[in-house]
Design brief:
It contains 14 helices and 14 strands. The protein is α/β, with parallel strands linked by helices and 414 residues long. The chain starts with a strand and ends with a helix. α2 packs across α4 and α4 packs parallel to α5. It folds into two domains: 178 residues, Rossmann fold; 220 residues, 3-Layer(aba) Sandwich (Rossmann fold), CATH 3.40.50.12030.
């Protein structure tokens, strides 16, 4: 108990609500400080971390910032100052949780500050605009932020809003307490490192087999959904923190999705972080051979290709020969820059549950075009293993697990 929780708020608008939240947190037994992210006017009450402190932390002269009357131009200054303050509190071991209250602007600023804090620190954004189309994904991004929809506006205290804020206080306090009961424990020196592995619906059975095979050998595997956000988050975590010791990338399809502007695009740096950190990698090709075009960008030519309706939101479309060559070139170029060892494992019987041998979506000739181009462009130091099975079989999962064991054995020897 008695842990510090920071409350982010634009105190010229919603100080009264933030102060009630502070009181509720302190009634539970924790400490709370209000951090003023305000843009205009003055705070309606006392903030334990004042606007002046936030401006000072941004490194900008106070008078210069006050002269900025454009809210949009002042926002990044206040966000930067807020980031500096909460990061300092975290680095000093003071910060145990963070919560924001607000509408669109307050939630944008608060969540931007939260994103600077590492995975595992409790983060809760209470927002009256959480359900607006297109906003929630921006608020959360790749961070582990919990989003609570207040439904009602923060417009003065009333019985309904007091109930919302009391529940929010209970939520963030419970998150802090639960986080301490089950903390993130990273492997000690000499322990087997954590393994990052991408999942996707069409590769799920393979992922389960691989995970169980490795767990039997004492490895701990951490999964990331390769739907465009989870795999992007994996890249960011790998690059920013020394958590993982190796990567099994069963589903690098986000590379092609990014290249062609499809719905699962995973960012321009997809498939790069592990190489930069010199981590061992085992790569399989699930979803590399098809894409998920956005409905607004659906081209007439897609009607002439093999398609698979995966659900009401996504229709997978086979990539063309030219597109497969482009994806192979990009993947090879990224893997060739890797500082650590890389092995690629290719299933000859289909690369997912939706395009395995015997299904209408299977196309061995197109798959071969990708594989041939990849082999031609890959460095000779990268081994490509071909397995006469489809990706979802236990046989292929064993081949992936074996490639992983082989690459890790060499790492230990070296």
């Amino acid at each position: 108990m008695n842990r510090l929780i920071v409350i982010l708020v634009m105190a010229e608008e919603k100080w009264e609500e933030a102060d009630f939240l502070r009181q509720q947190i302190e009634l539970i037994g924790h400490r709370a400080k209000i951090l003023d992210m305000g843009l205009t006017g003055t705070s309606r009450g006392i903030c334990q971390i004042s606007r002046e402190e936030v401006i000072s932390a941004s490194g900008r002269p106070h008078e210069e910032v006050l002269s900025v009357t454009d809210r949009g131009k002042r926002m990044p200054i206040m966000v930067d100052g807020g980031i500096q303050i909460v990061r300092k509190l975290f680095d000093e071991g003071e910060l145990s949780g963070i919560i924001s209250v607000g509408g669109t602007t307050g939630t944008r600023m608060g969540s931007s500050i939260m994103k600077s804090l590492p995975f595992g620190l409790p983060k809760l954004a209470v927002s009256s605009t959480a359900a607006l189309p297109g906003l929630s994904s921006g608020y959360i991004g790749t961070a582990d932020i919990t989003l609570m929809h207040s439904v009602i506006e923060f417009a003065g205290l009333n019985d309904l809003l007091r109930n919302v804020l009391a529940r929010a206080a209970g939520a963030i306090c419970a998150m802090v307490e639960s986080s301490e009961r089950v903390p993130i424990r990273l492997p000690d020196k000499g322990d087997k490192p954590l393994i990052a592995m991408t999942h996707f619906g069409p590769s799920e059975e393979c992922a389960v087999h691989v995970r169980k095979l490795l767990e039997e050998k004492g490895w701990q595997v951490i999964g990331f959904s390769a739907a465009g956000i989870g795999d992007r988050a994996m890249e960011e975590i790998i690059e920013s923190r020394d958590i993982f010791g190796a990567v099994i990338d069963l589903t690098p399809g986000g590379v092609g999705e990014q290249l062609f502007g499809f719905s699962r695009k995973a960012g321009p740096t997809r498939l790069e972080a592990a190489g930069k950190k010199n981590l061992p990698q085992v790569i399989a090709p699930c979803s590399v051979n098809f894409g998920s075009p956005l409905k607004k960008n659906y081209l007439p030519e897609y009607e002439q290709r093999k398609k698979y309706v995966y659900d009401s939101a996504r229709t997978f479309v086979r990539l063309s020969e030219e597109e497969l060559i482009q994806v192979a070139d990009v993947i090879a170029e990224k893997l060739n820059r890797s500082g650590g060892p890389v092995k690629v494992v290719i299933p000859l019987g289909g690369w997912s549950s939706v395009d395995k041998r015997g299904t209408p979506f299977y196309d061995a000739d197109l798959d071969k075009i990708f594989v041939d181009q990849l082999k031609e462009k890959l460095s000779r130091t990268i081994e490509v293993r071909e397995v006469d099975a489809d990706l979802e079989t236990y046989e292929f999962a064993r081949a992936v697990a074996q490639a992983f064991e082989d690459i890790m054995s060499k790492e230990v020897i070296n």
